[in-house]
Request: fold
Amino acid sequence: MSRSGKNKPLRSGYTTGACAAAAAKAAVLCLLGREHPGWVEIPFPDGSRHRFDLCRFGGTSAMATVVKDAGDDPDVTNGAEIGAEVRWLADADGERIVLVNGPGVGVVTKPGLPVPVGEPAINPVPRQMIRAAVTEALAEGEAKAAALEVTIFVRDGEILAKKTLNQRLGVLGGISILGTTGIVKPVSAQAWTDTIEASMRVARAAGLTTVLLATGRTSEAAVQRQLHLPEEALVMMGDYLHYALEAAGRHGFTEIVLAAMWAKLIKAALAVPQTHVRNGALETRQAAALLARLGLEEPEVTTMAGANTAREIYQRLQDGGRNDLVAAVCRQAQAQAELWSGLPVQVYLVTSEKGVVLHVAH
Reply:
């Protein structure tokens, strides 16, 4: 990652999911009667291990907390106290580890999010991290095969949630526990644009004429599994869509491969230059109007306009067998990308579940 200022490197931090996993492991160790350490170490999705200092540990219940350090990322949860409280269960319907939301952690009340309605707003990767950390603690403590309830909480999470889009998306009662890798990368605009420029310079120096622009690691990996491009061709553009496309033309590439998930592709089709939610949440009414122009009939247009998220729109199109409209959105995104870059663009739509390429616009 590039630098902020002349000499100071941008500092990465940890996601709420990673902090919750660390607190959960420490709480389980407390439940098992272990001495109270000042820190714990947990596994991350990429196989690495990271150490977390504990803010509180033990007390009258099996509980531990971690203060989130988001590094140089301007996240509303930076400095938040994220904790876990654990207790044994007599019966959990076959589940050994049961996740529960405590104070400050929201509940999903609308469809279209990565977890079902009624579930704690703890995303899939954080769930995996919490389970892995708890399983590790149980193994260290030689626990019997009993069920365990893990309650994740965030001090003042209800207040923090008011600074997010959670309520609009149907996450009520607190924040969401998020993260896809456990690591928070700084999102400084200068850092991103400098990194895009440097990546493209490396690709051109390697003699490449095609560059793969991806909005995230999952999209990049899914397309790379199909294309097997040289490593130097891979440019992580994040949400800087317009900037990256324009830069590819300026650096003299002759072809662009664009890899993105559905919500990002809709924004591209709508000519939104910077696709991060902080620059404007996707209005489903706008997406529905786009689909109407591409051939969606009433009353489906009205139904789509009332959807909660872009993800829900996609699912409804799939359920209705309207792959023609999914492909049409991809082609519209392709046309906009070619307009911004002045180059031929191949667009790959990647699912969010398993990183599978679903549609390609050549």
User: Anything to note?
Assistant: Residues 150 and 324 are 44 Å apart (CA to CA). Residues 323-341 form the longest helix (19 residues). Residues 3-184 form a domain with the CbiD-like fold (CATH 3.30.2110.10). The chain has two domains: 3-184, 189-361.
